[in-house]
Amino acid sequence: MxxxxxxxxxxxxxxxxxxxxASLFAGDLARxxxxxxxxxxxxxxxxxxxxxxxxxxxxxxxxxxGEGVYDALKQESGVHRVxxxxxxxxxxxxxxSTASVAVLPIVEAKMVEVKDNDLExxxxxxxxxxxxxxxxxxxxxxxxxxxxxxxxxxREERSQHANRxxxxxxxxxxxxxxxxxxxxxxxDQIRRDxxxxxxxxxxxxxxxxxxxxxxxxxxxxxxxxxxKVLEGSMEKIVEAFQENK
Length: 245
Known about the structure:
Blueprint: E1 8-15, H1 19-40, E2 43-52, E3 56-65, H2 69-73, E4 78-84, E5 95-105, E6 119-124, E7 140-145, E8 150-154, H3 160-181, H4 187-195, E9 205-208, E10 213-216, E11 221-223, H5 226-230, H6 235-243
Parallel strand pairs: 4-9
Antiparallel strand pairs: 1-3, 1-5, 2-3, 4-5, 6-7, 7-8, 9-10, 10-11
């Protein structure tokens, strides 16, 4: 499978260590990817989200589709660390927080076998678009894959069937990644492999606000203009990885 031809991905952003500040940082990353997708002309569709405050997310799961999307964003998987003074910090102290990102290619159903008997499917009232109907009909879908313990959900579509299909796409993407990376391993190990433990020391990239510097620890490159990058101007980071192949 050639990575450059994968034009549809599942993007997960999760708050890690750092409490409310970690949730705010997860929100910053989610919006960065959404804005970058807009610049590239890609579709960005939120499948499930757990909000924390006005601008933060505990978890956000989205589907991103467009030409070359996986090739451009695959390097984003891992733990991102931020160093800055939170808006709630009265003494001006710098806090360190993290958020984890997972980028998973969406694969065809025939590439991953999922048995119905391995699934536990539950429904609830949705929280996405749909006006008044959203609180009356159980459109949101949650799927537990019993052999691995993986849980996926989708609530943003208008129908139960559509949400189930989206949730199955997420599940297949995760199972495909597991099959690709390892043949055996515990459920805890699978989760660690996907997004890391979100510990501060387990980082792929650091966003240092006081010094206006982004450092990618894998390729040893530094980038400036953090605010501009978080507004979706990720071009230099993406290009750096493509040049480093």
